[in-house]
């Protein structure tokens, strides 16, 4: 299926009033249990003043590439063809059900670029595997950074310089702590506390850039873990947090309807008033908005 057949080019009329920016912060391997047991005042504040669920679901297998791709592609591995961390655009067993202009399943970044050519689109990621999943021509900047502090600092600097329309920030240290020490260890919970601090720094950066009042922030993850690993079919691995905060979002709203990781991209498309490609299977999380 070609991109022209897959994507309608007319914008929808559902753009959320007052929103000019969306920031997605993905904390690799951050589980609901981790948030509940760690000290996370920033995340707690986003929950109190926004909408959330601690029972969103990752896709199977509960590995990073299948899930981060699902988050940005609004579909699962059955559609995207991304079934493992070993996936490459030119090395895969399962063909995608549709491809965009760069030969991979359409992402929210490519859809935004198609609908709003003037948009500024950015990605700062702390795991090299993220870059393989992206439609690179859709971006104004992609930085493969070294460590979560550097990732956050580069994103904040870019906020002040360009005030991007859509930014994806990926923090990898939480998953690293899970693999090294265990997903129920003190070190793992400390890594989530560091992620919480960096999310706070990101929010301060948005404020300093004059963006915060017009920004929706989404905090989520790609999987949890059991022992020192993940990839299996347990609730501890498949359940993830999903938190959204900003203009037009209901405060103190615990989401009752089911949320999939791939609903993230559909929600961003809804915020910006974009018509999603026909090949997407996700739905926007309308329950989070005060006037859906």
Helices and strands, with pairings:
Elements: H1 3-6, E1 21-27, H2 32-37, H3 41-48, E2 51-57, H4 64-73, H5 77-80, H6 108-115, E3 121-125, H7 129-132, E4 141-144, H8 148-162, E5 166-171, H9 173-181, H10 186-208, E6 215-220, H11 235-238, E7 239-245, E8 253-254, H12 263-272
Parallel strand pairs: 1-5, 1-6, 2-8, 3-4, 3-5
Antiparallel strand pairs: 2-7, 6-7
Task: Give a concise summary.
36% of the residues lie in helices and 15% in strands. Helix 7 (129-132) links the parallel strand 3 and strand 4 (141-144).
CATH level 1 class label = Alpha Beta
- Which percent range fits the helix content? 25-40%
> Helix-strand pattern, N to C?
HEHHEHHHEHEHEHHEHEEH
Principal-axis shape? globular
CATH homologous superfamily label: Alkaline Phosphatase, subunit A
Strand order of the largest sheet: 4-3-5-1-6-7-2-8
What characterizes the major β-sheet? Answer: 8 strands, mixed
**Spans of 5+ residues with little confidence (pLDDT < 50)?**
1-14
Structural classification: alpha/beta
Q: What is the CA–CA distance across the termini?
A: 31 Å
Mean pLDDT across all amino acids: 94
Would you tell me which CATH topology applies? Alkaline Phosphatase, subunit A
Taking all Cα atoms into account, the compactness measure Rg is 17 Å
The count of DSSP E runs of length 2 or more, i.e. the number of strands, is 8
Number of domains: 1
Q: In what range is the share of β-strand residues?
A: 15-25%
Task: Characterize the quaternary organization of these chains.
Answer: single chain
How many helical elements?
Answer: 12
| Name of the CATH architecture | 3-Layer(aba) Sandwich
